[in-house]
């Protein structure tokens, strides 16, 4: 099921406006548990024959692998995160599938991790912090969409801070990075993942200018 990006129906409105607003409230300081209120539907993630971005199956497989780690006890999820982690995963997968601007950005981030993996593999915890901070710097340098960049930087800062201080987040981030690198042969790199092709660097310039850089 492909959602309209013009919010012309209840499903499109619920995802692009209501669900994203919940995440924005968290960024503004609301407690994490409000993420339980996401309206996500499974059909928003599934393919009913329509064209979908490459690598959707990669994210789904990574989610399945994470769940297996949780079930085996290798990742111990705190009470609050346990209530929302499935919704966070489903939101990320839906965002990748349904929102072209985030297809490009998430795809570009995964590609950057793979291409710069030598900064992560067999490195110390401090070296890995430097690597994560480097990813943040890379993203901020290349993302020209003013409306969303501060939200994305908040997410980088949150997870880097948690990596430094919290066992669950450190274990989870380590798992995700290791999974991406171990399964790099399953990841398809496409031109749209290059930052030079991200919205609004290569498309949507008029819309972005009409909205004074906030498109």
Question: How do the strands and helices of this protein lay out in sequence?
Answer:
Blueprint: H1 10-27, H2 42-45, H3 56-72, H4 79-98, H5 100-115, H6 125-142, H7 146-165, H8 167-182, H9 205-210
Question: What report would you give on this structure?
Answer:
- The chain has 215 residues and is mainly α.
- The chain has one domain.
- The protein has nine helices and no strands.
- It has helices spanning 10-27, 42-45, 56-72, 79-98, 100-115, 125-142, 146-165, 167-182, 205-210.
- Helix 3 runs antiparallel to helix 4 (79-98), helix 4 crosses helix 5 and helix 7 packs across helix 8 (167-182).
- It is globular, with a radius of gyration of 17 Å.
Can I get a quick summary?
By secondary structure, this protein is an all-alpha fold.
Distance separating the two termini:
25 Å
Order of helices and strands: HHHHHHHHH
Low-confidence parts lasting 5 or more residues at pLDDT below 50? Answer: 204-215
What is the count of helical runs? 9
Radius of gyration: 17 Å
Q: What share of the residues lie within helices?
A: 55-70%
Give the overall silhouette. Answer: globular
Largest sheet: none
Q: Work out the count of structural domains.
A: 1
Structural class: mainly alpha
Average per-residue pLDDT, rounded, comes to 91
Total strands = 0
Q: Strand fraction band?
A: under 5%
């Amino acid at each position: 099921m492909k959602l309209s990006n013009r919010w012309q129906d209840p499903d499109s409105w619920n995802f692009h406006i209501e669900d994203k607003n919940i995440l924005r409230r968290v960024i503004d300081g609301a407690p994490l548990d409000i993420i339980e209120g996401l309206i996500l539907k499974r059909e928003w993630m599934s393919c009913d024959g329509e064209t979908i971005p490459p690598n959707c199956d990669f994210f789904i497989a990574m989610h399945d692998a994470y769940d297996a780690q949780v079930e085996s006890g290798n990742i111990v999820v705190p009470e609050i995160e346990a209530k929302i982690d499935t919704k966070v995963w489903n939101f990320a997968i839906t965002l990748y599938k349904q929102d072209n601007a985030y297809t490009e950005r998430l795809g570009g981030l995964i590609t950057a991790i793979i291409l710069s993996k030598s900064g992560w593999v067999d490195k110390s915890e401090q070296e890995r912090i430097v690597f994560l901070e480097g990813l943040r710097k890379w993203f901020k340098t290349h993302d020209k969409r003013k409306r969303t960049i501060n939200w994305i930087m908040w997410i980088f800062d949150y997870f880097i801070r948690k990596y430094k201080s919290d066992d669950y987040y450190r274990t989870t981030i380590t798992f995700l990075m290791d999974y991406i690198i171990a399964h790099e042969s399953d990841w398809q790199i496409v031109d749209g993942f290059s930052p030079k092709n991200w919205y609004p660097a290569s498309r949507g310039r008029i819309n972005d200018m009409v909205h004074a850089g906030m498109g």
